[in-house]
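Example protein was shown:

_____
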Amino acid sequence: MKSVNLYIPLLLLLFLAGACGTKKSDGASGALSDDALLDTVQRRTFNYFWDGAEPNSGLARERIHMDGVYPENDQNVVTSGGSGFGIMAVLAGIHRGYVTREEGLARMERIVSFLETADRFHGAYPHWWYGDTGRVKPFGQKDNGGDLVETAFIMQALLAVHQYYAGGNPQEKALAARIDKLWRKVDWNFYRQGDQNVLYWHWSPEYGWEMDFPVHGYNECLIMYILAAASPTHGVPAAVYHEGWAQNGAIVSPHKVEGIELHLRYQGTEAGPLFWAQYSFLGLDPNGLKDEYCPDYFGEMRNLTLVNRAYCIRNPKHYKGFGADCWGLTASYSTDGYAAHSPNERDDRGVIAPTAALSSIVYTPEYSLQVMRHLYDMGDKVFGPYGFYDAFSETDNWYPQRYLAIDQGPIAVMIENYRSGLLWKLFMSHPDVQQGLRKLGFQLSSDTSIAAS
């Protein structure tokens, strides 16, 4: 009887413990502080660009599919823009101690060695290369040459790396000098197609300018115009920015979406996908940044993020799962290929891309952390060895275990910018960047021009 009397309380304790474990509807994230959760997600995402990198180049694979299915046999194709984001993610990983400074330097040397010999077109890189050879892989039939936008994304990263190593030991300084040569070789002026006051996205040695894509704002390409103005060797005049990007002021178009004020004109829509608030600002610090077209870039990008969130909460198409803890529309894998999801009924397909809300953490930290916790609690359905999978749809019960570099990179970079501002500090400290911003009339506050140091 004594043993039975002891056994019953023991069963009761086990039951209560199990009930407590079951009751933990907050999921695994409930046991993690904000900082621990951020570090968990950042470290896992960093691994995409470290463990998952293409081995010869050290650059980011365009895609990693955990199912091993690659219909176009492109598992070793590397991406220039996505690699730029990945380089910044690796830099943050070195800073965090995920790898040693020596290991990080060796990886950066491998990357720069590849970039020194890989295909370039008037100094600009293509969208894709074959990682084992450095030869261009066409992004499309006529898109087999220079891609100036993707080049800007990788140069944004390299200038941050330059600043990280420029004051280091002799080996680090040597790498910074090699990066400076790559930077100086980009012929931004060539991409004006005959000295027009606008930048063109593509040029092909075979098809010339047939892609015919002059870039006007606002979209993800602001960084391209800033770097074009900043170049010490092939810098474009300020008129290229004012007439091309801003179209002589037509970029200004105050309007409201979801009751939230936006100041800029978003090409083709009232409010663009969220990568428009992220790609240019991985290195370019929006805090206090303004010019004659936008009085507050941080505020504008925050409002664009809030529009995206508000639309998903309103959820006019009644998709399953959308709400305050699950929002974020951007370019990603979709239920039918790849799509640029935006906060409007035309471009909303019920697909949530984790990168949308998570890479906006610098703008909406509380709201982005709310999404991060919810996604983390969804478990391995959406969270894998390289962080959150690219996209999912609860409505369609669609949970592909696949990644895209260009979506993973901003997650790790913006988490680091939220935690320390590292990539912002490095990029903004480059003298050429400061010169380019001054040339275009940017200011950091209402009465302060871009600092000289």
In short: Residues 163 and 426 are 6 Å apart (CA to CA). The longest strand covers residues 252-257. The longest helix spans residues 2-23. The mean pLDDT is 93.
